[in-house]
Amino acid sequence: MESQLSTILTLIRHGETKANKEGLVLGTSDVPLTDLGKTQAEAAARRAAMFRPKAVYCSPYFRAVESANYLQILTGLSPIRIAGLREMNSGDMEGIKASQMEELYPEYMAQWRSDATTTRPPGGETLGEVHNRAWKAFLKIAEECDNEHVIVVAHLFPIQGIICRTLGLNSNQYNRIRVDLGSLSSVQVKGKSGIVLGVNDTSHLNSGHNSF
Fold this sequence. Notes:
Layout lengths: L5 E8 L4 H5 L12 H15 L5 E4 L3 H14 L4 E2 L19 H4 L1 H9 L12 H18 L4 E6 L1 H12 L16 E7 L2 E9 L11
Parallel strand pairs: 1-4, 2-3, 2-4
Antiparallel strand pairs: 1-5, 5-6
């Protein structure tokens, strides 16, 4: 029997921003990379370019676009912006210190710990909604790039959502998956099933060697 073709998607989390450095809740704010973030993004791009990708996709937020632009320099591929890959809308909590969330939004945080999937921040969206749109974007990319290796530059929650869905995990289990700034994760799609090939590889930020 002839085997099905497969697509490999390498997921890159954008480099550091000032908000990341200061421990702020960062969702829809369109902020640039720090100098360290640029170094992380360039290192991730150099690593990903070795895979000879067919296409590059990214979130429309500037920190993701800026990170993806390093891939354009190395590969000549213009990043394709996909709205479904954007970070979670944190609503009224945008820009506050993450360490203050318990104090400022105790009821929300209690609900989040109980069921993060359906808990909505004031004026924002639920984790389940983020994971749903990220998964739809992921499947669309996989369909458009059948039997190719493509790069996706996105954010923490969308990447966690894609990995959760691939593994058959509930969105509430998002915190079992670590995705550092500038890290690479990889998923293979074959037919209607997916396999996680690697998660949170940061070796390029240190030694530059492949740890998958």
